[in-house]
Amino acid sequence: MKNFKVTFTFVLLLLFGLNNAQKIGVVDTDYILNKLPQYKEAEARLNSQIDTWQSELQNLQSEYERKKSAFESEKVLLIGDQLKLREKEVVDLDKNVKTTTSLRFGANGEITKLRTNLVLPFQDQIWNAIKTMSEKNGLGIVLDKSNNISVIFLQKKYDFTDKVLDILLKGTDKKEKTNSKK
């Protein structure tokens, strides 16, 4: 009788576990972002801004190097206020280069903020599309393989990237049709 209870309990747990098992899906948000035309346009604008800032910084750095070199070679000829003025000019340019670098390219710089502002709306759209897709497909867990999750093997039926992309692109088509009717 005891073996029957153990076996019966094991069978019930097994059936209960199979009925309540979570279905898992995988998406690749990097792939999705790269397929969205609006994201590519926004990323191109950001890269253009970064190029402009890098060019400005290189010009500033060149000016600093030029003035520092000129100051070093003329230092022995300068006296009093002239020496102090030229030295201050070089020091101020050095500070300007460092400040500009930090403000634009630092950890909390303008590029980081612009990149965050660029990606955030798309992340929200992708999140909503993933939520819609997971509800339609009865998924309990959705993993993003682009976020350092090692997926060693994935059967195509568990990769929902294209379904999420379809939801996003259909939403884009609807918006474009609405805007063109106005």
From TrEMBL:
<dbReference type="Pfam" id="PF03938">
    <property type="entry name" value="OmpH"/>
</dbReference>
<dbReference type="GO" id="GO:0050821">
    <property type="term" value="P:protein stabilization"/>
</dbReference>
<dbReference type="GO" id="GO:0051082">
    <property type="term" value="F:unfolded protein binding"/>
</dbReference>
<keyword id="KW-0732">Signal</keyword>
<feature type="coiled-coil region">
    <location>
        <begin position="43"/>
        <end position="70"/>
    </location>
</feature>
<feature type="signal peptide">
    <location>
        <begin position="1"/>
        <end position="21"/>
    </location>
</feature>
<dbReference type="InterPro" id="IPR024930">
    <property type="entry name" value="Skp_dom_sf"/>
</dbReference>
<keyword id="KW-0175">Coiled coil</keyword>
<comment type="similarity">
    <text>Belongs to the Skp family.</text>
</comment>
<dbReference type="GO" id="GO:0005829">
    <property type="term" value="C:cytosol"/>
</dbReference>
<dbReference type="InterPro" id="IPR005632">
    <property type="entry name" value="Chaperone_Skp"/>
</dbReference>
<protein>
    <submittedName>
        <fullName>Outer membrane protein</fullName>
    </submittedName>
</protein>
